[in-house]
Amino acid sequence: MHGAILYLSRIDIDVARRDTFFLHALTGPSMDRSAGPLYYKGWYHLFYQWNPDSAVWGNITWGHAVSRDLIHWLHLPLAMVPDHWYDINGVWTGSATQLPDGRIVMLYTGATEESVQVQNLAEPADPNDPLLREWSKAEANPVLVPPPGIGLTDFRDPTTAWRNPADSAWRITIGSKDRDHAGLALVYKTEDFLHYDLLPTLLHVVKGTGMWECVDLYPVSTSPAVEDGLETSTPPGPGVKHVLKASLDDDRNDYYAIGTYDGETDTWTPDNADIDVGIGLRYDYGKFYASKTFYDPVGRRRVLWGWIGETDSERADILKGWASLQSIPRIVMLDTKTGSNLLQWPVVEVENLRMRGKSFDGLDVSPGSVVPLDVGKATQLDIEAVFEVDTSAADGVVTEAGAAAYSCGTGGGAVGRGLMGPFGLLVLADDQLSERTAVFFYLVKGVDGNLTTFFCQDELRSSKANDLVKRVYGSLVPVLDGENLSIRILVDHSIVEGFAQGGRTCITSRVYPTKAIYESAKIFLFNNATNVRVTAKSLKIWELNSAYIRPYVN
């Protein structure tokens, strides 16, 4: 699942517990993807898959945490455990649907005694309890089994239901794949959440993408005047697009596309088939998987969580006693300026954790330079930066043939030197820069003179530990005429979440510094380009308070 989360930092193989500004499950679990987030009677609820007995995957139960503000979380006892034949091998991911009368139905995948994936129904045992501490599994379970043509272990993760405008019945979709390794989403119709009809058409299918997990379908507004999120059952029509997202089991990344949902045929069509689900855009280009959204009726917004897995060894996880966590919750909406991508941004409540802040405006960062920034303790930070780039020195110099000549993963990272990049910030760095995580832009000029912008995060020198997977993550980021380059970075000891151009491209890094910890963690500006001058037009850095995650006490 995606569980609650605590951002911790590591000293070699031993991990000391750090302050955190979001939520980490209780000591000792292996955390996985989230399930059934919802708002109910004054509380936000996050359920999540976890193993309460070990820091490795297995014995999947549902953990449960609640919050008034999406930031300060309280852990509750386990919500559901594998205790029936239909879920004895795991209470896997599911989704909550709140009906018009206030009733909550929770559909979830169970792994049976024979490890067949089936769908089950649970409801609150006491709907008057705002904390939803007890859940009752339906006597009719399982309510769905794999249909003909679908593998017994390829049928999981039911979505939040939406009401179809054509017949007012409910629809859910479930991810799977076919015999030819095409990823797909099945659609079921129900009126009571106990009896279902498999519809004859697929919601969508994309060749070669393999098993689709954690499918999500939700509406977004296309109007610049409407900044609110849309409730899941908002019907298709003018001013509405639908996002289809799938987590690809093949490469463990979350892909989405923007398109049109047809309520008459219960099918979805991408706006651009070249960037269809699984072959185009991603929520996040770093360590971010099995995400889930829900509609927040209080904030009138769609909120997204993603599961951040570990990149160290299983042995290290066992020694430190926990594994995996959740991203900071993000709002998600259509980018109405481009019309072709989403925007993701940390929920505004994160700003309530801001404490001391410093501004560094108008700082020049000349080619080849590294500029230290004195902010004191730099382990929990909220950073907002706007860069102006003078590319005049590169006029008339064409050494790179457009976007095809560069990628974040193969371009040398932050230490490589190009005509117009890399430049940006070094976070979780020590004084000698022997450890640092780089968050940067890289500009490429094509033969036509047009600029392409890449947004990247370089983990290659993030830690002296030798049992880690370290990568350079990133992708293109759209930059419109007249826009400066902008970035927001959330740093929390061993997590770095970057948001470029208002959240058009996002990257999450899981890092394990051994030197850049506590008071030894520093932050720097850098410019490794050879031919551009960079100015930090606006740079604001806040230290963040802890969210003081703790168990709920009556």
UniProtKB/TrEMBL annotation:
Subcellular location: Secreted, Cell wall
A molecular-function term among this protein's GO annotations: beta-fructofuranosidase activity
Catalytic activity: Hydrolysis of terminal non-reducing beta-D-fructofuranoside residues in beta-D-fructofuranosides
This protein's UniProt keywords: Cell wall, Glycoprotein, Glycosidase, Hydrolase, Secreted, Signal
Keyword Secreted: yes
EC number, as in UniProt: 3.2.1.26
UniProt-listed GO biological process terms: carbohydrate metabolic process
Primary residence: secreted
Every Glycosyl hydrolase family 32 N-terminal domain range: 35-346
Family to which this protein belongs: Belongs to the glycosyl hydrolase 32 family.
Name this protein carries in UniProt: beta-fructofuranosidase
Organism: Oryza glumipatula
